[in-house]
């Protein structure tokens, strides 16, 4: 595991580089629908962030830019950053197709500050399935704080770490140690967007950061936490026990105890 952890970035980058074209073609992302109406944001995200018109927003770990461009369509001046060159190329192409003004940069999240030439932003945005790929959340939080202008906000929406300690079939039995943050070998063939896809780069490394680790890192970085909201729903069938409700909302089955599946944090730089 030590050898695997040391090579985490190369493994993860190869994994994500290979999956960019698969995701662009996958029904999961519905790019036809997105091109017709560029909005992939969740209702609670737009409500909790508020009006972004004219605000400078940087999206860390943006993949191929759907959420980034969704904020731009709402009036933000956006920058998207990701360590995958194919993802950034796809994001830039998508922006050009849609006629949306956006800047996309290839950079590791830990190198975001020099990548943007120390520019600061009104909003730093990070969303679902991002933090589990980072080994050091304290360092990430310090980067966020340095990217923010005074009065700016961090908005983070993520999958709740508690849901990953339960068994996949029923979501009622504890099967994993919540306090074991990793690193963990992960991955496998295919992708969540197309499980049947043929892939070559299948080994990854992830970390299961506890909620307390994330909140404490944000606070230590000097940001004032305005709220932490926990939600009983998620947006795809990330475990077999979940049941689809309206739209793309998934919850525990009726009669089962509710558990937190996602959460959101807003924190300000004073």
Mean pLDDT: 95
CATH class: Alpha Beta
Give the biggest sheet. 7 strands, mixed
Determine Rg (CA atoms, Å). Answer: 18 Å
Oligomer: single chain
Helix content: 25-40%
Number of structural units classed as domains: 1
Order of helices and strands: HHHHEHEHEHEHEEEHEEEE
Question: Under CATH, the topology is which?
Answer: Rossmann fold
CATH superfamily: Vaccinia Virus protein VP39
Count, helices:
9
> Within the largest sheet, what's the order of strands?
3-2-1-4-5-11-8
CATH architecture term: 3-Layer(aba) Sandwich
Q: What proportion strand? A: 15-25%
Count of strand segments: 11
Low-pLDDT runs = none
How far do the termini sit from each other?
40 Å
| Helix/sheet category | alpha/beta
Principal-axes geometry comes out as globular
GO molecular function: methyltransferase activity
Protein name: Type 12 methyltransferase
InterPro entries: Methyltransf_25 (IPR041698), SAM-dependent_MTases_sf (IPR029063)
Organism: Streptomyces albiflavescens
């Amino acid at each position: 595991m030590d050898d695997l952890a040391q090579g985490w970035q190369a493994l993860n980058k190869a994994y994500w580089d290979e999956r960019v074209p698969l995701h662009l073609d996958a029904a999961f992302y519905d790019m036809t629908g997105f091109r017709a109406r560029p909005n992939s944001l969740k209702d609670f995200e737009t409500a909790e962030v508020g009006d972004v018109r004219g605000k400078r927003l940087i999206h860390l770990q943006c993949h191929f830019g759907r959420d980034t461009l969704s904020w731009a369509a709402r009036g933000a001046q956006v920058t998207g950053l990701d360590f995958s060159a194919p993802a950034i190329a796809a994001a830039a192409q998508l922006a050009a197709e849609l006629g949306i003004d956006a800047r996309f940069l290839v950079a590791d999240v830990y190198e975001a500050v020099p990548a943007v030439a120390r520019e600061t932003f009104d909003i730093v945005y990070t969303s679902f399935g991002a933090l589990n790929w980072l080994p050091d959340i304290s360092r990430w939080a310090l980067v966020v704080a340095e990217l923010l202008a005074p009065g700016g906000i961090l908005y983070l929406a993520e999958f709740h770490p508690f849901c990953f300690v339960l068994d996949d079939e029923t979501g009622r039995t504890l099967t994993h140690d919540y306090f074991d943050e990793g690193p963990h070998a992960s991955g496998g063939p295919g992708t969540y967007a197309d499980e049947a896809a043929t892939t070559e780069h299948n080994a990854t490394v992830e970390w299961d950061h506890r909620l307390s680790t994330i909140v404490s890192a944000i606070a230590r970085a000097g940001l004032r936490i305005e709220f932490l909201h926990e939600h009983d729903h998620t947006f795809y069938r990330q475990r077999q026990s979940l049941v689809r409700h309206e739209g793309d909302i998934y919850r525990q089955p009726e009669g089962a105890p509710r558990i937190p599946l996602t959460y959101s944090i807003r924190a300000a730089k004073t």
